[in-house]
Amino acid sequence: MVYAVVRTSGRQEKVEVGSIITVNRVSGDSTGKLQLPAVLLVDGDKVTTDAAELAKVTVTAEVLNDLRGPKIVIQRYKNKTGYKSRQGHRQDLTRLKVTGIK
Question: Quick one: pLDDT at residue 30?
């Protein structure tokens, strides 16, 4: 069983070949492919955390689609002053499919 922990969008995700992850909006190259930096690699019983060896590891992913996250409502209210404020936010997201770990 081969899997890797990659860093993307300020977070770390555990990925295997064929797994689909949702991360903050990233853009690939013209073909929709991108490479993710590995933080940890598990290949069977061998666990790799050395930075020099991880520099040789490439985790490739394919951009499936761009989407928006759920709406988050931000409300502020101050009692007895009549102050009310309401704001909404939807995060831009990208769905990725991991195509290879080498």
Answer: 87
Alpha helices (H) along 1-102 = 51-54
Query: How would you class 53 by CB atoms within 10 Å of its CB: exposed for 0-12, middle for 13-18, buried for 19 or more?
Result: exposed
Q: What is the pLDDT of residues 54-63, one digit of tens each?
A: 999 999 999 9
If DSSP states are collapsed to H, E and C, what string results for the chain?
CEEEEEEECCEEEEECCCCEEEEECCCCCCCCEEEECEEEEEECCEEECCHHHHCCCCEEEEEEEEEECCCEEEEEEECCCCEEEEEEECCEEEEEEEEEEC
Check whether 72 has a pLDDT greater than 90.
yes
Q: What is the pTM of this model?
A: 0.85
DSSP three-state, residue 21: strand
